[in-house]
Amino acid sequence: MINKSLSFLWIFLLNALSLLPLFLLYRLADAFYLLIFYVVKYRRKVVRENLYHAFPDKSAAELKTIEKEYYKFLSSLFIEIIKMKSISKRELSKRVKFKNADLVEAYLQNNESVLFCSSHYGNYEWVCMAIGLNFSGQHYPIYKPLSSESFDHWFLTMRSKFGNNMVAMRQTLRAIQASKNSASMFTFGSDQAPSKDESIYWTNFLHQETSVQLGIEKIAKKTNRPVFYLKINYLKRGYYEVDCVPICLHPNQTREFEITEMHTRFLEELIEEKPAYWLWSHRRWKYKPQPKPISLLENEGGISASLA
Questions:
Q1: What is the pLDDT of residue 304?
Q2: Which class would CATH give 13-277?
Q3: Which of 89, 99, 239, 283 has a 20 to 30 A CA-CA distance from 121?
Q4: Cβ-contact 263, 188 below 8 angstroms
Q5: Residue 8 pLDDT
């Protein structure tokens, strides 16, 4: 009961804070940066380890610069997420612009559906909200529900603004089936880490063995819907450009894991170009690939030897 009451109090305060204009909220973000970087040291160890392993060729000074830039951006991102509660259509449209939207709209106008690859890069929350304002089809963002029922409802309400139809991850196939007769857009967070039990595909990403979700590839090949990557470009504080990049227009003609590799390599290049705007405080590499049993390795060695 106490925890629930505290949640409602926090939500009330966040809603009140959201009513402030962004120029004042960004002043708060500056103070918040000092707090989480120098005082609380929020996940500093996680961020440093992630950067160290992702960029082995960079110097300690370069990594420190990226780290500071990341925390400054994270502070602004936190404020921008709070602002989602009260942001207007006009304000959002001014701050999130789409490039090559006509490539997507051509499919929607022909009553065809598309799939969007997204990632925790830039203000992915604002971008997701803005899709409902910029395209004619129905938008279905896939999300992972929060453990707190109160905060999950709060986020869900904000994310559903401007025509978005939020779909819990486990309800994806049902939502695709229900919307199959109308033009739709399904947005996937392609950089979300699978659970340990679901980590069945591993690839090298940012110099580390990384498990990758296969959901978007499976659905793309099953439905033959074209796949676009939402390339988020951070222009300046509070302003983003989203390039709709076609990465696979004919999924049923691809090899196994080809689509997964496409969007993984695309994100990798994006991060290497401007590293400060990805979610480095996320424990992306907490699972490691399981070693094969000795008996299996011996068997593979025997097969290899016989083939040789």
A1: 31
A2: alpha beta
A3: 89
A4: no
A5: 86
Cα torsion at 33, 97, 169, 150 (round to 10°)? 50
Q: What angle do CA 277, 279, 280 make, to 5 degrees?
A: 100
Rounded distance between C-alpha atoms, residue 157 and residue 143, angstroms:
13
Q: Which mean pLDDT values do the consecutive 10-residue runs of the chain (308 residues) have?
A: 75 95 97 97 97 98 98 98 97 97 97 96 96 94 90 93 92 94 94 84 96 95 97 97 97 96 97 98 89 46 32
Task: Determine contact, residues 266/229, Cβ cutoff 8 Å.
Answer: yes
The tokens 């089809």 sit on which residue? 137
Give the three-class secondary structure for 87.
coil
Q: What does DSSP assign to residue 35?
A: I
Give, to the nearest 10 degrees, the angle between helix 124-134 and helix 149-159.
40
Judge whether 139 and 184 are in contact, CB under 8 Å: yes
- Give me the pLDDT at residue 306, please: 30
The pairing of strands 96-99 and 239-248 is parallel
Report the relative pairing of strands 202-205 and 208-211 from DSSP bridges: antiparallel
- Strands 239-248 and 202-205 come out as unpaired
Domain boundaries, the chain: 13-277
End-to-end CA distance of the chain: 68
Which pLDDT belongs to residue 291?
Answer: 66
Look at residue 71 in the predicted model and tell me its pLDDT.
98
Inter-residue contact 172 to 143 (CB < 8 Å):
no
Contacts of the segment 56-62: beta carbons below 8 A, 24+ positions apart? 56/207
Does the pTM surpass 0.85? The reply is: yes
The CA–CA distances, whole Å, from 114 to 130, 206, 280 equal 16, 28, 29
